[in-house]
Amino acid sequence: MATTQPAAGQSNIPPHVPPELVFKLGITESAEFLADPHKYMAGLHATHPPIVYSYSDHNPSAWQLLKYEDAYFVLRHPEIFTAEGSGPFPRDPDDYWKIIPLEIEPPEHRKYRALVDPLVSPKAVLALEVGIRKLANELIDKFIGKGSCEFAKEFGRPLPVGVFLDIMALPRDMMDEFVRWAMGLLHAQDRAVAGQVMGEVTAYLNKVIAEKRAEPDDGLVSAIVNGRPGGEEMSARETFGFLFFVWIAGLDTVFATLNHIFVWLAQNPDRRQEIIDTPDNINNIVEELLRVFTVTFSGRTLRQDFELRGVKMKKGDKITSILPSCNFDPEIFPNPTEVNFHRPRKPVLTFAGGAHSCLGAHLARMEVKICLQEFLRRIPNFKIKPGAKIEYWPGGVVGPKDVPLVW
Amino acid sequence: MALVTYVQHNGERHEVDVPVGDSVMQGAINNMIDGIVAECGGGLACATCHCYVDEAWAAKVGAPSTTEDEMLEAAASERKPTSRLSCQINVTDELSGLVVYLPETQF
After folding, report:
1. Which residues pair with B53 in a beta bridge?
2. Where on the phi/psi map is residue B54: left (φ > 0), alpha (ψ -120 to 50), or beta?
3. DSSP character for B23?
4. Domains and CATH numbers, chain B
5. CATH number, residue A254
6. Chain B neighbours among A 196-255 (CB < 8 Å)?
7. Secondary structure letter of residue A162 according to DSSP
8. Which of A289, B10, B12, B79 has an alpha carbon within 20 to 30 A of A365's alpha carbon?
């Protein structure tokens, strides 16, 4: 396989890395990965050792974890594996800001999370259900009559962005701009484009910070910019880093997840019917779909030398949990690629884990649930537009580019 | 308010007034009681708010749901007959006086 050749002679591989663990995994840019990302990431368990050291043309070389238990260990031991410096966004070294709360470690971390947790708790999210359902139906109204839609653009994108704007208490008419910025930062694969977009985002967020300071409301932006973690004022850089992170995190992940799910639904009419026929099982259905369509990775840096599963790592090494692979770990989820809505429930790694476990996890679950329920209620039968081929974005959030549906 | 006593694995006891309607998990988190992690924030998704309900209270607290029962299998510490995920126990006036024991580790 072209993507797994040993990298003997690669100049950037540190000497402590055993040559037999060095691979070019190709996540997320090789042709083999992009042909079917989840199939590829599930397949790694059969073709690779559980911990590999992977180099790439675009990203820093890093240890890659495929096993569920290893990822959980790393995510739950911030004193050994820090998330500091793990954000992949362009930042000026002379005006550096931390991505908050991700790049703050316990115990300080809790002070920051406490500002926003109440707005995205299971209870808070429940209060959003009616509004999300309404938005889903408004979007469906626009295309149901024409017998087709470009799902990603007409539903997968506007639904989570609209919900997010509402939670942030920002105007809905920012939707197109937000979408363009998210694409530029996450999928352009071009530093010049990312830098340009970063400038626009910075200007916008700074304007919003000033506005919400002047006129506080009960939205998420206000909670952040007027929040006092541990009773102390945040610096301007901290406020920006916090707002930026929550902003970017809300834009792309549910989008990608919904797109994966609807490609799968379009290709599996019997499973679509199963979902329609078992409304009481919806929570298990959502959890299983989140397991098999996990879209992100979680990066850390070693604070000390450490040996994991017999592999000796050094202080300063980068380490990435391949969360989609971890959720296909056959030791934890037998017959892992089978989509089985009656599996015994186990914690999934879709939302990472540990202190930095995804802030928006319950919101994401709610959005996926409502989208399944409302879309299938109104458009129970659909398929991929004949002749269309599903292609995937390279980058830190794995998802299809276009999802053309017909019914 | 209802009085909930959290007993740490080392025997340390914390008596806390928890607002009725909050979960036993929230009562611990809001009072900085170590021993409950609750990394998912109360969504029945992580099994890190495991507790052992005092036997005298077990009947009043009740049994776990099917999903909670499955998630308890993923808890790090030994599962016992009165094991519950504390995010799923809502505090009521009837539960005032409740005693829960916290496990050695949540993960």
Report:
1. B100
2. beta
3. B
4. 2-101 (3.10.20.30)
5. 1.10.630.10
6. none
7. H
8. B79
